[in-house]
From TrEMBL:
Name of the featured protein: 3-oxoacyl-ACP reductase
UniProt xrefs under PANTHER family: 3-OXOACYL-(ACYL-CARRIER-PROTEIN) REDUCTASE, NADPH-DEPENDENT REDUCTASE BACG
Xref: Pfam families: adh_short_C2
Matching Gene3D superfamilies: NAD(P)-binding Rossmann-like Domain (3.40.50.720)
UniProt family annotation: Belongs to the short-chain dehydrogenases/reductases (SDR) family.
Cited CDD domains: BKR_like_SDR_like
InterPro entries the record matches: NAD(P)-bd_dom_sf, SDR, SDR_fam
Length: 259
């Protein structure tokens, strides 16, 4: 299927690896000009070169922290009029809410709620004026089924979800859609890092812990980031203009609810 977005411009955040990289690669395969940002300059440039070689697409790199005003200003200077915005930032650390101070909550809200909102604020009116825009926020399956040790993420990402639910209904009449992609367990460095603590607690190796977790998923495996990227690309496509304000869960069937 031709997604109808060749020649469009996209900003993809936290795109040097993992799910952000998969989204950038999928968009580039569709002929989108991609601007990617992440904190590590060397890895970011290596990712950009990999995407260029694989797709022939134009890829611009902007090293920086998208959760800061300076990081957002830099990427918007490089791509001031994006047609597509993929918001993404690493989640806050796990823990017990009794141990978190105000500063911990502020960091979580800044990264996983306010940073996406400020990028939307900076870009959505231009999309409306051009009569095309696709905004995808990478959140978490924990928005549907909260994970107790990820309270910082549960709270901040749920706040973003509530905000998007209202805004998405205001922009869609201008062919500007806003949706959320909710990943469950995907084969990424972040997943492996989170498994390390669980493995220590269970007295197993990380590989043993990951194998055990795979078996508990109805799909019998973790997700492939390429699957996530393909879903993102469809949400950004010309064919997805009637889909807005949705929370699209990709978790291999782990969430057991009907709704």
């Amino acid at each position: 299927m031709d997604l109808g977005i060749a020649g469009r411009r996209a900003i993809v955040c936290a795109a040097s690896k993992g799910l952000g990289k998969a989204c950038a690669l999928a968009l580039a395969r569709e002929g989108v000009e991609v601007t990617i940002t992440a904190r590590g300059a060397d890895l970011l440039e290596a990712t950009a070169e990999e995407i260029r070689k694989a797709t022939g697409a134009a890829v611009t790199t902007v090293p920086g922290d998208i959760t800061t005003e300076e990081g957002r200003a830099a990427v918007l200077k490089a791509c001031p009029e994006p047609d597509i915005l993929v918001n993404n930032a690493g989640g806050p650390p796990p823990g017990n809410f009794r141990d978190w101070e105000r500063e911990d909550w502020i960091r979580a809200v800044d990264a996983n709620m306010l940073a996406p909102i400020f990028l939307i604020k900076a870009t959505v009116d231009g999309m409306i004026a051009r009569k095309f825009g696709r905004i995808v926020n990478i959140t978490s399956g924990a928005v549907k089924a909260p994970i107790p040790i990820l309270g910082l993420s549960n709270g901040a990402r749920s706040g973003l979800t509530g905000f998007i639910a209202g805004l998405a209904r205001e922009t869609v009449r201008h062919n500007v859609t806003i949706n959320n992609l909710l990943p469950g367990p995907f084969e990424t460095d972040r997943l492996r890092a989170t498994m390390e603590g669980a493995a220590r607690a269970a007295g197993r190796t990380v590989d043993e812990e990951m194998a055990a977790r795979r078996r508990t998923n109805p799909a019998g495996r973790f997700g492939d980031p390429a699957e996530f990227g393909a879903t993102c690309a469809f949400l950004c496509s010309a064919h997805a203009g009637f889909m807005t304000g949705q929370n699209v869960l990709l978790d291999g069937g782990a969430y057991p609810g009907t709704l």
